[in-house]
Structure formats: C-alpha cells, structure tokens
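On clarity, I found the account of how folds are encoded harder to follow than it need be. Since the whole study asks how a given chain folds, the encoding of that fold should be made plain. For illustration, here is how one protein appears when written out as sequence plus structure tokens:

:::
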Amino acid sequence: MKMIFLVDGDNNIGTGLKGIDMLSEQDSVLVFYQKTGLALSKIQKLCAGTRASVQYVESIRGGKNSIDFQIITELGVLVGKHEADYAYVISQDKGYAASIDALRAGMPTLPGGGLQPSIESCFRL
C-alpha cells in the first residue's frame, strides 16, 4: 500500500512532519516550502530518519496561498494518475477542505486520505 503525503511547509511544519519516521520505503513525502519561510536545511533535518522518499518542492511563486494552490494542483495530478493508494494533504489550514471535497465530487474513486494535521494522525484513521 503506497501513501503520498503533501506537506504544507507554511503551516506548522514541525507538527505536520510528526510521524514521518513511521513511513516505509513505499511511501512518498512532498514538502512544499517558500524561500521566505523556514530554511530548507531545517526542513531537511525534520525529515531525517525516514525511510520514505522525500522531495522538497520550492514554491513556483511567492505570495499568500501560493503553496496551497500548488499542493492542490499536485494532488489532482497524483490522483488522476493513480499514483498512490492513499493521498493526504498535511496541514492545519482548513482551506484545503473545499478543494478536496471538489476532487472527491468529480472523482468518487479518490484514494482515501484527505486533510490531516500531521503524518502521525493518518495512522489513527
């Protein structure tokens, strides 16, 4: 079972990455960040010790909600390609809920997951 986690680096990333050490080699983590946010080296330290594949995705453009839109776009692409059994957006930002609901309405086979505050919380479902 492959899981993909799209992590909002602008929103309590320390909390969001909690549980990253529980992931397997099958899993993938995409950490979205902005140059003006937490330094990439600090984000990489938070991800150390995981067996999952981790990619760091710098925001294409800065500004309010830019990472949010980039994450939802990537989620739509991954779901459309059937890249994972489970896909999660990791953020405490409730603004993602409407986009995830819209994806589910258009694609009833949307992999389980959705919006969660941390990686660790995904294992409690």
The longest helix spans residues 66-80. The longest strand covers residues 3-8. The chain has five helices and five strands. The mean pLDDT is 86.
